[in-house]
Amino acid sequence: GPALGAAGVNIMEFCKQFNARTQDKQGKVLPVVISVFKDKSFEFVVKTPPAAVQLLEAAKIKKGSGEPNRQKVARVSWDQVRSIAEDKMVDLNAFTVDSAMKMVAGTARSMGITVKGGEKPN
Q1: What's the burial of 84, exposed, middle or buried (CB within 10 Å: 0-12/13-18/19+)?
Q2: What is the rounded distance in angstroms from the CA atom of residue 104 to the CA atom of residue 82?
């Protein structure tokens, strides 16, 4: 809000466009990259929800572990990791789904979520 107003963007117009593009993703955390031009026009790109948020949803927990190396708080399957990786492919700097899966699994580990069961990446 305040950052857009300071840049001279019409906030009502931004809200209309943002709501129109994200109406099917209501209640989700969505990173957005906004570019504001000299003539005060703008464009924005809506990215996929963060891997950490998707992992919390898949594991059905509210938050990760404060001590991920000692205290594991949940478990997800490799199949769930694959579906998150496929969803995140457009935003990750990975060429294959397997490498994206390894990135998502690393995020899971850092949150105290164990990945077991299902088909592992190569």
Answers
A1: buried
A2: 9
Rama region for 27: left / alpha / beta (φ>0; ψ in -120 to 50; rest): left
Q: What is the pTM of this model?
A: 0.80
The reported pLDDT for the residue numbered 65 is 85
> What is the tally of structural domains in the chain?
2
DSSP-derived secondary structure letter, 28 = S
pLDDT tens, residue by residue, 23-57: 888 888 899 999 988 998 899 999 999 999 999 99
Side chain identity at residue 77, one-letter code = S
120 domain-assigned: no
Contacts of 108 by beta carbon, 8 Å cutoff, 6+ apart: 55, 76, 81, 114, 115
Residues 55 and 99 reside in one and the same domain = yes
